[in-house]
Automatic annotation (TrEMBL):
Its main location: cytoplasm. The gene is rimP. Required for maturation of 30S ribosomal subunits. Keywords: Cytoplasm, Ribosome biogenesis. The keyword Cytoplasm applies. Residues 88-154 form the Ribosome maturation factor RimP C-terminal domain. This is Ribosome maturation factor RimP. Residues 14-85 form the Ribosome maturation factor RimP N-terminal domain.
Length: 158
């Protein structure tokens, strides 16, 4: 039997716990940075994620992971919000944040540029649609995008 990935195990633990708390699981990452490993769990909440929300999930997850013991090496557990400039990962993110300013970092240049900034118009037929200043519309297939994230823009009240 194939060994489950740490991120999949964490998702299986966290999702039932947060289901009735109106908390969304944004992402789980298990990464090595320098000599340390980090298990990062990013959460969001429509009404705003509080420090108490993060602490409650962290304590629950820590206890569940201690019992299950799926991670043999030492690691730091971090539970937090993805922040104001959060990455957009799921289809519903492109609906929820339509009209907001974004930055798309591309794997390869498009018309000589690897970074595209502008207003998110949405996602259509697998293409991210961004309106740049000057009303130029850019359509980028998701497989060409390394990262797309919200941008803090004071003009839009963010």
């Amino acid at each position: 039997m194939k060994r489950k990935r740490v991120v999949d195990i964490v998702k299986e633990i966290v999702l039932p716990f947060i289901k009735d708390k109106d908390i969304e699981l944004v992402e789980v990452e298990f990464v090595k940075e320098g000599e340390h490993r980090y298990l990062r769990v990013y959460l969001d909440k429509e009404s705003g994620l509080s420090l108490d929300d993060c602490q409650e999930v962290s304590e629950y997850l820590s206890g569940a992971l201690d019992k299950l013991d799926p991670i043999k090496e030492n690691y730091f557990l971090e539970v937090s919000s993805p922040g104001i400039e959060r990455p957009l990962k799921k289809d519903k993110d492109f609906v929820k944040y339509k009209g907001r300013f974004v930055e798309a970092r591309l794997y390869h240049p498009l018309n000589g540029e690897k970074i595209i900034k502008g207003k998110l118009l949405g996602l259509k037929d697998g293409k991210i649609i961004i309106e740049r200043q000057g009303k130029a519309i850019v359509e980028i297939t998701r497989d060409k995008v390394a990262l797309i994230k919200l941008l803090m823009n004071f003009d839009q009240g963010v």
